[in-house]
Amino acid sequence: MRMVPDAQHCHFVRLARHFVRLAGLLTIALAVASPLGGDAKAFADDTQPSPAQPSTTVEMRDHDRLVWIGGTFVERMQQDNYLETLLSAAFPAKKLTFRNLGWSGDTVAGESRGVFGGPNEGFARLVKDTREAKPTVLLVQYGANEANRGPEGVPPFVTGLNRLLDALADTKARVVLVSPCPREKLPAPLPDPSRYNEHLQLYERALRDVATQRGCAFVSLADVHRAIPVPWTAPPANFRFTENSLHLQPRGAYLIAASIAAKFGARFEPWRAEIDAKELAADASGVSVSELKRTPTGVAFDVVDRVGPLPAAPASRRANEPALFAGEPLLRIKGLAAGQYVLKADGQAVVQLSADAWAQGSTALTALRVERAERLRATIRDKNELYFHRHRPQNETYLFLFRKHEQGNNAVEIPQFDPLVAEKEKVIFELSQPVRQHLELSRVE
Question: Which one of 100, 147, 190, 311 is least enclosed by Cβ atoms within 10 Å?
Answer without folding.
Answer: 190
